[in-house]
Amino acid sequence: MNEIISTEVIVLKKTLYKESSLIISTISPDLGKIDFVIKGAYQITKTKQPIVDLFRILDVEYKENNSGLYSPTTIELQKDYDSIALRPNQLSHILVFTKFLLKNIHPHVPCVRVYAAFNNLLQNTIDDQFNIYSINLVKLVYLHENGLLPDILSTSGHDENRYQNFLNKIINYAEGKVNIIPQANTEYWVEFNKWVRNLCHYQELE
Predict the structure, then answer these.
(1) For the CA atoms of the chain, what is the radius of gyration?
(2) What's the Cα-to-Cα distance from 65 to each of 6, 32, 68, 140, 176, rounded to whole Å?
(3) What are the φ and ψ backbone dihedral angles of 128, each rounded to 5 degrees?
(4) What angle is formed at CA 160 by the lines to CA 158 and CA 166, rounded to 5 degrees?
(5) What is the pLDDT of residues 47-101, one digit of tens each?
């Protein structure tokens, strides 16, 4: 008998399948990228409303199979970020970033920290705290979680340790562990964005 798996997911993409069904791509903190087929997702009645949509957090249960495309046995809506649709500029940036996640998050590879950072990004967006470095904060967490940041701790100099401590504070903020981001001037954030983009380009993540 196939094992029943329970997990939390964020919906990253939905594609119409046949007449009334959807294929959705999601990320789970423990299981990485998971694709589901949701049968009858567009069948709307007075008693049945679709709960699957972009950037919604769902609790799902499904049975293991060998196809890589799963049919949930239960779906429960935990949280939605629907109001992001009312922020078209921020939404466009986040939609582009979802392509980064869809490309670089893999099935069966946990992404606990990236999941937390992306969830925090969505929350900050509806709280009107989206800014020029928001997307690159999540990319920084991806680089960190996957061991792709430069090893600046190979030396014990004071400047290196101070920089690492500051970077750790930024990562903690990105993951929602603290509410206040370390203070830095505009020039720093411009260079920060360039640094993260260059690292992602070097690793062929984009």
Answers:
(1) 19
(2) 14, 16, 7, 33, 34
(3) 60, 40
(4) 105
(5) 455 689 999 999 999 998 888 899 999 999 999 999 999 999 999 999 999 999 9
Structure-block tokens of residue 12: 């990253």
Residue 151 dihedral angles phi and psi, to the nearest 5°: -85, 90
Q: Give the closest residue to 39 by CA, choosing from 78, 82, 86, 75.
A: 75
Q: Could you tell me the two tokens for 164?
A: 């690492």
Residue type, 106: H
44 pLDDT tier (thresholds 50, 70, 90): very low
Q: What is the pTM of this model?
A: 0.91
The amino acid at 117:
A
Nearest to 143 by CA among 196, 204, 206: 196
d(CA 138, CA 150): 17
- Kindly state the DSSP code that residue 55 receives in the 8-state scheme: T
